[in-house]
């Protein structure tokens, strides 16, 4: 048995890739499939998807590259729904990060395309990089029956806002975007769950969700560099982990030498969730806080969604680490989107 099989017994595994081959290669049915502009662009520009792109350009090229790209994102993930038990997810453009109206407009466009593809509302969700505008948009989209996931989440304030906005899922980034690009930005520690500086915030979020009486966003933790980091998420009690193709392959290659699995999976609804005893002290720390942390975490006492997410935006601007990491995500995903734009426009002009 591999460590991938073991992990599947400990938590719910999602696929952070748009490839049908990756989904079908797993020895079990994954739950959700997540994606972003980097993943969609990479998949769309593969030679085996050129016919799909050509067809979309022929149909929608007159409406511009963005329409083609949005249609492509839906088409690439919609074909994977039969091989999943949960949802497929695509992400709104980071060009709309602080524009509620534009976020809602793109989500409605996605929703219409999913409907055209025969995908019901309960089989997809839309990822919103979680600014104040995104939080306000999520609340309105929920009222329209469009499910959202709060992504690019780095702090408790965003997590509370996701709860208040009615997001169905939330994806904290365990590592910042820079760590995927620059090896010097990676966290190298002996015990990932115990020593990684993001672990306390993950535990604080899980504990917060578990303490609330109303349904909460399902945590689908993301952004791992190594298979060992992925395994650490199960130790922390994360109910879902979305895993890159490379890490899925790495986990499948690792033999399981740890003996029988005795623990059950944590509930996505947080029923019965408790901070694992080994990590209880972590919840009362925050290594990522600027200066000396006062021990106070964000709570429902502040409405982070009201007034177009004003309180959330104010917090993000005040926190250099969070604002920097969100800006890195913005640049990274816009670069991927621009790569697709160039390729699509070249085909439109051809």
UniProtKB/TrEMBL annotation:
Keyword match Electron transport: no
Keyword terms, alphabetized: Schiff base
Keyword Repeat: no
GO molecular function terms noted in the UniProt entry: transaldolase activity
Pfam families per the UniProt record, alphabetical: TAL_FSA
Domain of life of the organism encoding this protein: Eukaryota
UniProt GO BP: carbohydrate metabolic process; pentose-phosphate shunt, non-oxidative branch
Official protein name in the record: Transaldolase
Species in which this protein is naturally found: [Torrubiella] hemipterigena
């Amino acid at each position: 048995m591999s460590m991938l099989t073991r992990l599947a017994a400990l938590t719910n595994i999602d696929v952070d890739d748009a490839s049908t081959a990756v989904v079908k290669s797993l020895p079990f049915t994954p739950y959700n499939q997540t994606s972003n502009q980097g993943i969609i662009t990479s998949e769309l520009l593969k030679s085996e998807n050129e016919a799909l792109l050509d067809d979309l350009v022929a149909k929608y090229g007159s409406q511009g590259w963005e329409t083609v790209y949005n249609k492509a994102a839906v088409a690439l993930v919609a074909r994977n729904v039969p091989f999943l038990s949960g949802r497929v997810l695509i992400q709104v453009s980071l060009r709309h990060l602080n524009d509620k109206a534009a976020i809602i407009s793109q989500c409605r466009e996605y929703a219409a395309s999913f409907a055209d593809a025969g995908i019901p509302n309960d089989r997809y969700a839309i990822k919103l990089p979680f600014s104040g505008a995104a939080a306000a948009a999520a609340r309105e989209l929920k009222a329209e029956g469009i499910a959202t996931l709060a992504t690019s989440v780095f702090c408790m304030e965003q997590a509370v806002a996701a709860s208040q906005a009615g997001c169905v899922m939330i994806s904290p980034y365990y590592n910042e975007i820079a760590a995927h690009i620059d090896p010097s930005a990676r966290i190298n520690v002996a015990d990932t769950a115990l020593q990684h500086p993001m672990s306390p915030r993950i535990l604080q979020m899980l504990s917060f969700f578990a303490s609330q009486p109303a349904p909460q966003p399902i945590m689908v933790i993301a952004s791992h560099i190594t298979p060992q980091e992925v395994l650490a998420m199960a130790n922390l009690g994360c109910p879902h982990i979305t895993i890159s193709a490379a890490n899925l392959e790495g986990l499948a290659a690792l033999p399981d030498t740890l003996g029988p699995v005795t623990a059950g999976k944590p509930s996505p609804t947080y029923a019965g969730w408790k901070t694992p005893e080994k990590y209880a002290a972590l919840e009362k720390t925050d290594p990522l806080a600027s200066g000396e942390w006062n021990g106070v975490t964000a709570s429902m006492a502040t409405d982070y969604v009201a007034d177009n997410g004003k309180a959330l935006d104010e917090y993000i601007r005040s926190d250099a680490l969070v604002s920097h990491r969100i800006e890195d995500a913005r640049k990274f995903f816009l670069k991927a989107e621009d790569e697709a734009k160039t390729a699509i426009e070249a085909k439109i002009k051809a």
